[in-house]
Amino acid sequence: MRILVVEDQAKMAQFLKKGLNEIGYSVDIAETGASAESFASSCEYDLVILDIGLPDQSGLDTARHLRRDGYEGPLLMLTALSTTKDKIRGLDAGADDYLTKPYSFEELNARIRALLRRKNNSHQVSNSKLTFSDLEMDLIQRTVIRSGQEINLTAKEFALLEYFMRNPKRPLGRVNIAEHVWDIHFDSESNVIDVYVNLLRKKIDSPFSKKLIHTVVGIGYVLKDDEKNS
Ligand code: CA
User: Fold this and answer.
1) Cα 215 to ligand 1 centre (Å)
2) Ligand 1 centre distance from Cα of residue 54 (Å)
């Protein structure tokens, strides 16, 4: 799941990004309304978190522009304003929900879950579930099942597996994995990707005879279910 956070205060944006990363969401940050619009036009987001007070335009305008440009996913507004009138204006501009600052991260997370659940109930139910071979992943419930057996993953392992499941049979390079799952630029000296892939293999593959995560020599890894092992 990828979330766009539109927030001009760097500290607040980093706090959100860190917290959301920790629970397994990928996050992009836009600091202005204009950059939010350009992010949304080049990448598909499962959710947008939008601050009302932005340097170049009001978050209300940004919300309207995102809707006008075809963004249909959930939009959560963050606002320091807490009068009923302000909330109504936010909802009228296209927001699905709002949260008044200061808020707790726990509450934000609960709202996100509710919005994603609602989104998946109203349309594209299949979007909340990814399946590959006998492996099933529920992105809303945050559960992974292989051959009917539930597998507990950490947030990072979950995000890593989600990336594999979204790109089945495609060899994924370490650089790609690092950028998508860790939002970092890959340092070739680091073996963090291999360490995490091995942790994931222990849970996803070790208990089963058919292996799904394979090494692609010189590149990285691929999720596939044919028997040609590597
Ligand atoms: Ca602001």
Assistant:
1) 44
2) 5
Question: Domains of the chain, with CATH numbers?
Answer: 2-119 (3.40.50.2300), 125-226 (1.10.10.10)
The Å distance, Cα 8 to ligand 1 centre, comes to 5
- Give the pLDDT score at 205: 95
Report how far ligand 1's centroid is from the alpha carbon of 94 (Å): 18
Measure the CA–CA gap between 45 and 26, rounded to whole angstroms.
10
User: How many angstroms separate the first and last alpha carbons of the chain?
Assistant: 29
Backbone angles phi, psi at 54, to 5 degrees: -115, 155
pLDDT of residue 125: 45
Q: Residue 155 Cα, ligand 1 centroid: separation in angstroms?
A: 28
32-65 per-position pLDDT tens digit: 999 999 999 988 899 999 999 999 999 999 999 9
Q: What is the pLDDT of residue 14?
A: 93
| Phi, psi of 39, rounded to the nearest 5 degrees | -60, -50
Centre of ligand 1 from the C-alpha of residue 80, in Å: 9
Q: pLDDT of 84-97, one tens digit each?
A: 888 888 888 999 99
53 CA → ligand 1 middle, Å: 4
Regions of the chain with pLDDT less than 50: 123-125, 229-230
